[in-house]
Amino acid sequence: MKLRLNDIGSWILVCLAIIAGIPVVLGIGVVEAILRFRALLGCRAGRAYEHVLLTPDPVLGYRNRGLFDSRSVPAEVHTLDYYGRITVTTDESGCRNVPWNRPDGTARTIVVLGDSSTFGWNLSDDATIPARMALHLNHKGSTAWRVINAGVNGFCTLQMFRLSMEILPKAEPDYVLVCSDWNTFFNTLRYRSLWSPGCIAGLAHSDLPDRYALSHWQTPRLLCRARLALGNARVRQQHGLEWLFTRCRRWKENRLYLESTPWRREMHSYLFALAAAARSCGAVPLFTTVAGLCHPSASDNERITLSSHASKHVASVRRGPEGLASEAFDFWADCMVEINSVVTAACTEHAVGLIDVGAAMERVRGGERASAFYDLFHYGSDGADIVSRKLAEEILSRNRRPGVQCTGRP
Questions:
Q1: Could you report the per-residue pLDDT of 307-323, keeping only the tens digit for each?
Q2: What pTM did the predictor assign?
Q3: Measured between alpha carbons, how far is residue 401 from residues 65, 395, 396, 398, 408 in Å?
Q4: Domain 50-400: homologous superfamily in CATH
């Protein structure tokens, strides 16, 4: 009789477990149905433009789509990044088209590697830094120039190096210009709890394209996103910067990380690899410094102007009527200085030519500087033109020097 009661109790527990699980299964089914229906209707107005521009890549993580044309993109994806007002086109290899290139087959070639500032975030094809470089280079002198825009949004030095191994042998450039990036530092800062050398390439744009696109089920993808967001507050928003400015404790952590060595080793090692890759193809390597909206020598009045500009374009750094918080301003300015110190040291150690874009932009002050940037570090059309002029002048100067001029290939 006792055995039978135990059997009955076991059956009751099983039945209760099944009854309790029914609402959970039904709930998951409802969520899955809603998510699939939403995806089916294409309700993606909130997603960034790069979801359409970028495609997964097993080596780079992601890359620009080949033969992409923003004019054929549905209107609902013209959202945060480009507002549907600019033209973005790429060639067969995914490099952004440069309309000012000379068609001459004997033109000298410059491959420009970089991140979103090089690619031309929020700029049309004819307003990017490589495009304006081609315009200035071909406008001066009798030498024809061809500039290849190999910038990709969110790329760090590791991804630039991997891309260079693919592009340089085909392009056979005379110069390789590496527009040094912010992402090597900021990616490792944002994900430093997960950090190990070489593993964090491009995680600032890891949702571009979707990390969980391999899953056929929408609910696990949603749960993975929730787990990451809850486990690491710095993954909450792709373009948002609230992870950088929200808490005083985090300010201390960020300051310590800015002065640490892991991100410096990462950036320095791949700058050396990029220089070696350029030289192996017979090209002259050149590195640039970075420039940002915030800079250490800004006066109090200028800080007010620049912080107000930043608050209009980056909602997540608003701090009421005073605009960008003073701590945030100082941090961004110090980041620019530290990144440039790494680039300068790499150029000195590996005998690479340095083009100091940061110094050139330092002369642009006040409201003029604000108009040169869309946000904290992306150039507007005015800023891209200033930088491209500086780059063109330096390249033309180096090309005329007998000891530096690239003689081309036999």
A1: 877 766 654 444 444 45
A2: 0.76
A3: 38, 10, 9, 5, 14
A4: SGNH hydrolase (3.40.50.1110)
